[in-house]
Amino acid sequence: MDNRPCNSINLNKHFGKLALQLTPLCNLDCSYCYLANRKDSKLIDFTTINELFVANSDNFLDDVEVLFHFGEPLVVGVTRFSEICKLIRLHKPDSIISLQTNGVLIDNEWVKVFREYRVNVTVSVDFPLEMHSRNRRSWSGRSSLNAVLKGLKCLRQNNLSFSILSVLTKEAIKSPEKIVKELMLIGPRIWGINIDEVEGLNTATSWKSTDTEDFKNFFESILKYHKSLSANFKIREVDRFLEASKISVHKKAGNVTNSDYVSIDAYGRIYFLSPELCDLQSPRYHNFSFGRIGRDSLLTAFSKYLASIVYRDALVGEQICKSSCTYFETCGSRFFANKVCENGTLRSSETLVCKLVIKCITDHLQFLSSDIK
Asked: Model-level pTM greater than 0.85?
């Protein structure tokens, strides 16, 4: 464990990833959402964004990735969204602006904004599509599928590339061929996979730790149909595996030791490690905020974080993973919110996501590595 006092650790920190919550509010009530405050209509202040970059500009990489996340960013409206992007581009012209959205509000006006400010768009869509209808519904209980498909069609018609991120339930994996065919019709550039995990407000999952063979068989089938149907979308998990395989195991650094992630919520509160920790309460840690923009600099907050039980436990958890898990070079020890919600502490290793998504997929890709390189 790193027992150095925090003032002996180099605080000349440069963050490469910034998760920015434009609002906690969401226009959908998805069955497995982890956010507890998604009826909160608080909007992030322009002052907060301006102070974030003015006071901390030297602590962000020039090409920092700014991700609008945890909440539905598009509910702030086109005008406010445009002003926020303009402000970020003013301070960090070379930044990479990315967006995670449920897609129901996308229209031609939004596409113009995405193109003007070079916003990378990822839309949440579940497969098979009937699972999306079932699990991603409005607060009044209506399916969001038609609205999402309309938004995706708008992106395609305007030749704006996009990615898709899906939450897979146990039932969904019964139809791998259908999933690939539906993805081909929708036309994303990249498809990423999550599961309905135990996290935050979502305290139940359709998966069991004994479902490893089922998940591995599903992923094998996905790759088989992806190849046989000549699908032209990339699979995020394959890309991550190939990227990890390029780095020497001796140079691997964990996601705690090497973390360059900072998250700011709509109230200006500062978090580290993962945006999924922002809305989380824990008996051991209480909350995961280490300061507030306008009161604390990022380095002040980071110093508090380094002196905290959150950092100490996360670092021990990383060392446990590194010493006991042969998948560390692929994962680097992450899924911090899952560790807290499943194991009660960051001072732990394996979670359900590790067992299914990381281990099953890595095992299969290692077996096929000579074919996919």
From this structure: yes
